[in-house]
Design a protein that fits this description.
Elements lengths: L1 H26 L6 H22 L1 E6 L13 E4 L5 H9 L4 E6 L8 H5 L5 E3 L4 H17 L3 E4 L17 H9 L3 E6 L15 E7 L10 H19 L5 H6 L2
Parallel strand pairs: 1-7, 2-5, 2-6, 3-4, 3-5
Antiparallel strand pairs: 6-7
Helix pairs in contact: 1-2, 2-3, 5-6, 6-7
Length: 251
């Protein structure tokens, strides 16, 4: 049953991404910025609703009160990365438009990539690290100044349930360079949509939003350690079953 439901959900995504992408490609001839983002967000809302109705995957969010308040507030969201789910979910939750930092290869995906290439986000060439980070800072300052929040996955790639990736300092370096606070977010998405898996399983995905951490005067590596400590401790609270092996190994 889970396989059939997952196939149906994939079909919903494939069928609906084309008209929404075309809408963005046409709209970008006339408007820029937030109107295009709203079209993309509407597709993500559709996908997440379909995930709930078809696959039985629900989300439970805590800590929304921790998000910076005000239309001009700045934030850099640093999110645990286990699944495609949080990539789709975050724009549906946040009160500000989000700008993802992503590798430029995604731009070549038919329709999906063509559409996100028209959005005001930050796509980088990972083979040119110095130039890429300079671009992130330059565009990040502009986006934060206009009320767009930056979202990054510090582990860089999707990490299997119950494991810890290598937390890279790009997000905290950007925070220190721009003065924006970082907001750590833990997501137990792999319980229902495992890493690189096709089948989605019914259940509840918990999203926990931590308090903003000021970046002014901080060392990026030390700041990232604080972010990692909070996220990984929270992951063990949200999904203790995934870390049961740690307790057994520790006696």
């Amino acid at each position: 049953m889970a396989l059939l439901r997952s196939i149906l959900h994939l079909l919903v995504m494939l069928v609906t991404v084309v008209p929404y992408a075309i809408a963005i490609l046409v709209a970008c001839l006339f408007v820029r910025g937030e109107p295009l983002y709203r079209i993309a967000r509407a597709w993500l809302v559709l996908v997440m609703n379909a995930l709930r109705l078809i696959c039985g995957v629900r989300t439970r969010v805590s800590g929304m009160e921790n998000l910076p308040q005000g239309n001009s507030s700045a934030a850099i969201l640093l999110v645990k990365h286990q699944s495609t789910l949080e990539t789709f979910l975050m724009p549906t939750l946040m009160p500000h438009p989000l700008a993802y930092v992503f590798k430029k290869e995604l731009l070549y995906i038919p329709f999906f990539g063509w559409a996100i290439g028209r959005l005001d986000m930050i796509h980088i060439d990972r083979s040119q690290r110095t130039q890429a980070f300079n671009k992130v800072v330059e565009q990040g300052r502009r986006l934060l100044a206009q009320g767009t929040w930056i979202i990054m996955f510090p582990e860089g790639t999707r990490i299997p349930r119950g494991q810890v990736g290598n937390y890279k300092t790009g997000g905290t370096r950007l925070a220190v360079a721009t003065g924006a606070p970082v907001v750590p977010i833990a997501v137990s998405s792999a319980k229902c949509w495992p890493r690189k898996a096709f089948i989605k399983y019914p259940g509840v995905v918990d999203v926990s939003i931590g308090q903003p951490i000021p970046s002014a005067g901080r060392d990026p590596e030390e700041l990232m350690r604080e972010v990692q400590d909070w996220i990984e401790a929270e992951m063990r609270r949200l999904d203790p079953e995934a870390y049961a092996g740690e307790r057994r190994a520790g006696g």
